[in-house]
């Protein structure tokens, strides 16, 4: 089983995720031992509305609504399920639009990079090992390292691809301060979390069918004292 480490999401609502190799991060959620699951509601009728998100709308029309939640609900990002690419060239303009990049190698081990303030803030292998740079044995001038600017990341990955075999590239965590990525329209599900009040967390899944929002599931958790 492949592990994904999402420090920002874990800090936000005390949840951790575990997934199979072909699943999105945090798709199957396990609550923190001190968190209590309160229940889930589902909206599935065309026209139903939740936080300004209306069933039947397209992903592109919903994105500005999510961006508005940055101010009203402190939602800073949305996770995009299945946003994977096999061609490195597809990433050139996309990487700066996201808060993370997962590079899956041919041996099945991924390198997981997380961004903050336009630079790489943390790095992990999917085995759970924290990294300062990758590849670990590479010269600093050639390696991807903590502190590297996100804008220069594509060039480094492109250089490393000549000596490494990469299976696919995953862009899961969409930065809502940046513009819409058309590839998001192909995703079957987006999800995000927010805290409506102290000690409480709401996890929202937006489910798509035929490139239209078909249902919304809202799960609520409460953190114990």
Q: In words, what does this structure look like?
A:
With 225 residues, the chain is mainly beta. The chain has a domain at 84-171. 13% of the residues lie in helices and 39% in strands. The chain has helices at residues 7-13, 59-72, 153-161, and strands spanning 15-18, 28-31, 35-43, 49-50, 53-54, 77-80, 84-85, 100-105, 110-116, 119-125, 133-134, 144-145, 166-170, 173-175, 189-194, 200-209, 212-223. The strands form five sheets. A six-stranded antiparallel β-sheet has the order 3-17-16-15-6-14, with helices on both faces. It has a five-stranded antiparallel β-sheet with strand order 7-13-8-9-10, with no helix packed on it. The protein has a two-stranded antiparallel sheet with strand order 1-2. β15 and β16 (200-209) form a beta hairpin. It is globular, with a radius of gyration of 18 Å. The protein starts with 6 loop residues before the first helix and ends with a strand. This is Lipoprotein.
